[in-house]
Structures are given as C-alpha cells and as structure tokens.
Amino acid sequence: MLELAFQPYELDSLELSNRFVMAPVWMGMADEKGHVTDQLIQHYSEVASSGIGLIITEYAYIKSGHQILPRMLGIGEDAQIPDLKRIVEAVHKEGSKIFIQIADCGLNSDPKYNSAGLIYGPSIIELKGFTEAEAMGVLTRENKHVMKALTVEQIKEKVKLFGEAALRAMKSGFDGVELHAAHSYLISQFLSNLYNKRTDEYGGSLENKMRFLLEIFKEVKDKLGKHPVSVRLNGEDGVAGGIKIQETIKVAEKLEEEGCDLISVSGGTPEKTGIVKETDEAYFSSFARKIKKHVKTPILLTGGIRSPKIIDHLLKEGVCDLIGLARPLIAEPKLIARWRSGDLRKAKCISCNKCFYEEGLRKYVNCPIFK
Ligand SMILES: Cc1cc2nc3c(=O)[nH]c(=O)nc-3n(C[C@H](O)[C@H](O)[C@H](O)COP(=O)(O)O)c2cc1C
Ligand code: SF4
After folding, report:
1. Is the CATH number 3.90.550.10 carried by domain 9-340?
2. Domain extents for the chain?
3. Fewer C-beta within 10 Å: the chain N or C terminus?
4. Considering the entire predicted model, what is its pTM?
C-alpha cells in the first residue's frame, strides 16, 4: 500500500518527494504582531522531518487589521521577510517544499484587530434570520454595526495587497503561494450569493462574482513568475445561497485557463467530526471527482483522509493527485515517517476537534488526546 503516494510528483517545475501535503492549519504560534516564533518553526520543521512532500502553511494575513484569530501569521510587512525566511530554511533543510497560504478574512475578521474597528466584505449583510452564516461560523460576533462594503477602489487596493504579499513570499524563499478562496473568507464571500449582494461588476453573474478572485490570481501569478500558485476552493459552501459545485467547476475551468497550478478542494465546515469508518473519510471527494472531470490542473484533496487504503483508492482512481492532511499531523507530526516505515495503521486522529484554541484554556493549537 501507499506505493503511489510515496512516488515523487512533479508539480509544474517543482519536484515533490511524494504526494502527501500538510494542509494549512492556523496554529496560534505566531506572536501578537504576526511574527514567526521558534515554536512555529519547530512545528513546521518537525512535520518536514517526517519526509512530507509539501507543506502549505497556515493562512497569513496580507495586512494587519484583517485577522480573525490571535497570533495569526502575518505577511503584510517587509519586516516579516527575515522571519518567514527562517521557516522556509528550516523546512528546506529537511527536504520538503513549502507554500504560504495568504488570506483576507473579510467579514469574518475580528473588528478588534482593525484600528477603525471596522470589517469589510463584498456587501453589508442583513443579519436578521442569518442562521446559515452563523452556522458557518460567520458573523457570530456583535459586528453588524461595523460592517462595510468595499468600494471598487478598495477592491483594487486589496488586489494590490495580495500581490505585495506574494512578492514577500518570493523574497522569503517560499516555493509557491496558495490563495485562500475557501471557508467563507473574503475571496469566497465574493463567490457566494450569501455575502455578495453587489450590483456592480463584482456581483450578480458568476463571471462578476469570480472577478475579484481572478484579478487577485493574475496579480499574484505575475509576481510569482515560474513559481506555482495554488487556489483553495470550496466545492460547495453547504448552506442555502452558498456556492454550488456547478459554479465551482466553472471557477476551476477559468483558473485553469489563467494558468493555475494547483486546485485545493475543500468545502464549507471543513473540519467535520465523527470520522469513524472508512466510508466517513475523504468527505469532499465527490467535489474533487466532479472538478477533475473538467480540468487537467492537479487537484489536492483534504478533509477526513485517515487510512492508507482510502489514500490508495483516491490516487489510483484518479480522484485527486495530492493528499492533504491537517488534523492527523497535529496528532502525529511524524505520521508520514510512520507510514513510510511500514506501519500502515490509520492516522490516530479521532477528529474530535479538541485541538482548537480556546481562550483561557489553550493558547495555541495542540492535540490533548495524543500529545
Ligand atoms: C486548528 C485548525 C486550523 C485550521 N486553519 C486553516 C487555515 O489556516 N487555512 C485553511 O485553509 N484551512 C484551515 N484549516 C482546515 C484544514 O486545512 C483542513 O481542511 C481540515 O482540518 C480538514 O482536514 P483534516 O480532516 O485532515 O483535518 C484548519 C483546521 C484546523 C483543525
Ligand atoms: S484533538 Fe487530536 S485527535 Fe482530536 S481532532 Fe484534534 S488532532 Fe485529532
């Protein structure tokens, strides 16, 4: 088992030593100003030392004032470059490649991180009866008075900020960049009817709703040159008014046309619990399967993947090209080395989500069950 998973994989010009990818996980290990800490370097270095092909870092905010959680990693200032270089060097030393995920949390930002106390999104959302958004973990705070719809000028400014962050990523030595266009953050808010009520060129038709993403993509691609750009998308948001798979397929086709190097498939409520049986695993595989029928761009699939048998199946059936693991690597940072050594028992992670940060209880992400 896992012969295919452990084969090297050519992602554009980048040679990955195998098809395992550490999916982005906010660790809460940066400092309060978004700077890298020794603890964060140690975390990525440990997973890299297990021989994983590619690491995609936790989301890094492109400008201070767009965080949702404390101790998020930042890439909004040139002063962060020397720090970021330290992560890259530590990971490269172990032989893995590393992308940085860049994000703007949009309406999901926490107003306390913005000096004006404001949060920005595609539109101001009517909160009355807004249970779907609440279910997605959005707008749960008392933020209805501080929402602002971005003006076109501000949209252009955001596009520029993503490009500048991508340039910093290159100066820091990252092998590529991932755009976080999933999980109801700013880019995915533009893609969703739930948040995007605009009547200008950024709202209405799908072509208009994906304009923001495509402008950012082109800006980032331009800054990256030959280095790969990955885009993380929700196959579906999973709520009424959210993006549906038929639309995501069209977004993926357009991204392919523009030269996207990797599409990372996720979905609404990405961290599902109760992954017990093999049939519970790979819960977004139907999205990957459908997208793959329409594009040749490599597909990374993440979400509930736990067993070598399922990994073999996903790769052999051509459901995806790369296998993303998030919580399994929180529970067992050296999981890839364990599997390579021939111990093919499934990942220990029981998908209970107790690793999440809790104010006052745990400062950073950690697995209280197995570590
Ligand atoms: C603590 C925690 C933090 C996360 N942070 C991010 C993030 O920064 N960016 C992102 O795209 N996904 C994030 N995710 C989602 C994961 O990348 C992944 O999609 C999800 O955990 C499902 O995969 P798994 O079953 O292998 O854990 C996070 C997940 C967890 C558990
Ligand atoms: S607490 Fe540990 S076992 Fe539970 S989901 Fe998190 S990593 Fe997995």
Report:
1. no
2. 9-340
3. C
4. 0.96
